[in-house]
Specification:
The chain has helices spanning 3-15, 20-29, 35-38, 51-54, 56-72, 90-98, 103-106, 118-128, 215-231, 277-286, 297-303, 306-318, 326-337, 339-343, and strands at 18-19, 80-84, 110-114, 135-138, 150-155, 164-169, 172-180, 186-194, 210-213, 233-242, 252-255, 258-260, 270-272, 275-276, 289-296, 346-353. It has 362 residues and is an alpha/beta fold. The strands form three sheets. Strands 2, 3, 4, 5, 10, 14, 15 and 16 form an eight-stranded mixed beta sheet that branches. Strands 1, 6, 7, 8 and 9 form a five-stranded antiparallel beta sheet that branches. A hairpin with a 5-residue loop joins strand 7 (172-180) and strand 8 (186-194). Helix 12 runs antiparallel to helix 13 (326-337). It starts with a helix and ends in a 9-residue tail after the last strand. 45% of the residues are buried. The structure holds S-adenosyl-L-homocysteine (SAH). Residues 36, 42, 50, 52-53, 85-87, 91, 114-117, 120, 155-157, 160 line the site of S-adenosyl-L-homocysteine.
């Protein structure tokens, strides 16, 4: 049993079982043992790989998406680019390179990175510090200061926000919590007290059905929507998730590109849950903005022209002008857009001001 697990077991002994959200927060962000606080999880040698690490075209197309959205909105002054959970900074690096094609936008932008892991903030600085664009880092969205419109991107960020789970049993809904066995190992237990009212949009749930709620994600979508409704801009949220109310559980642990036990070795595995895009969209609408999508990632990237871009890049590669090889470029595209890879499970939504033009790809 690792040191963080011992501390969690001691907390449970003192205060009783804890909500899964509290367990996730400790396992992911505890300053001395939390997964993100102590690891760079990305890449082939890490635990998982994300779209910007698969292909440079992902970040490039997102940069151009932001510029096109800005132009369609009338090129408003003082745009701020915001990224939530930028990982190694790869997406922003590729976006800012592609934005050299749109100097009217790039020359005005300031960039704000929202990151609460010191390890990854260091990686972002190494990737981005030589660029000729003002870049600041903050630890939470509440600290993002904008003077004009905000163009925000969050890739594989909302899946890592803490969720609570409720299980339908005997007609009532009971919270699933984290408790301990006699030897101090962790196990799931059900709260004896049912929810006072059934959860939203879950009328058809079968016995044993699970409702996962991500209050942190809903609150954030609401705040982002408020900001965009008041000052303009757009937010692009890309993640794996579902677009109709789900009854299954999706909480999972990942280690070395494979599944791991959620309750074993906290701080050593990534913990995520699929994103409930209906709940995020509803929160953004409550926040006063409009929502486009969800669109499957594959269809979205294809309508932004990823295949044409890959064709151009691989022609370049074949001519010997690039270090990349053409096969690798096409393998990356396939991974991002194929239905049996990331193309269908991953989805994109955009949050825009009411009555704003529909952004590219939606
Ligand atoms: N967007 C990147 C990385 C995804 S991993 C990519 O696509 O490669 C999740 C990222 O979110 C990491 O950078 C992690 O440190 C950050 N993160 C997770 N929870 C966070 C929180 N509550 N506040 C700020 N950053 C967080």
């Amino acid at each position: 049993m690792n040191a963080l697990q011992q501390r969690i077991a001691a907390l449970i002994a003192a205060q009783g079982p804890m909500p899964i959200a509290e367990y996730m927060t400790l396992a992911l962000h505890d300053p001395s043992g939390g997964y993100y606080a102590t690891h760079d999880p990305l890449g082939a040698a890490g635990d998982f790989i994300t779209a910007p690490e698969v292909s440079q075209m992902f970040g490039e197309l997102i940069g151009l998406w932001m510029a096109q959205t800005w132009m369609d909105q009338g090129s408003p002054a003082r745009p701020t680019l915001v990224e939530l959970g930028p990982g190694r900074g790869t997406l922003m690096h590729d976006a800012l390179r592609a934005l050299k094609l749109v100097p009217a936008f790039r020359s005005q932008v300031q960039v704000v990175l929202v990151e609460n892991s010191a390890v990854l903030e260091g990686a972002q600085k190494r990737t981005l510090s030589a660029l000729d664009v003002p870049i600041r880092s903050v630890t939470g969205f509440a600290d993002v200061k904008t003077e004009g419109p905000m163009y925000l991107v969050a890739n594989e960020f909302f899946d890592v926000l803490p969720i609570r789970q409720y299980v339908k049993k005997g007609g009532g809904w009971f919270e699933r919590m984290v408790g301990t066995n006699a030897d101090g190992t962790l196990r799931f237990v059900l709260s004896p007290v049912p929810l006072p009212a059934p959860p939203p949009n879950r009328d058809g749930a079968p016995e044993g059905g699970v409702y996962e709620q991500c209050s942190a994600g809903e609150a954030l979508a609401d705040e982002i929507a408020h900001r965009i409704a008041a000052h303009g801009g757009a937010a692009l949220i890309i993640d794996y998730g579902y677009d109709t109310p789900g009854f299954g559980e999706t909480l999972q642990a990942m280690k070395r590109h494979g599944p791991a036990e959620v309750l074993s070795n906290p701080g050593e595995n990534d913990l995520t849950a699929h994103v409930d895009f209906c709940a995020l969209g509803d929160a953004a609408v409550r926040g006063g903005a409009s929502v486009c999508g969800p669109m499957p990632q594959g269809a979205w990237l294809k309508s932004l022209g990823i295949e044409q871009r890959a064709e151009a890049l691989s022609a370049h590669a074949r001519s010997g002008a690039l270090l990349l090889d053409a096969d690798r470029i096409w393998r990356g595209v396939e991974r991002l857009i194929a239905d049996d890879q990331m193309g269908e499970l991953f989805k994109a939504i955009a949050i825009v001001p009411k009555n704003a033009p529909t952004p590219p790809g939606f």
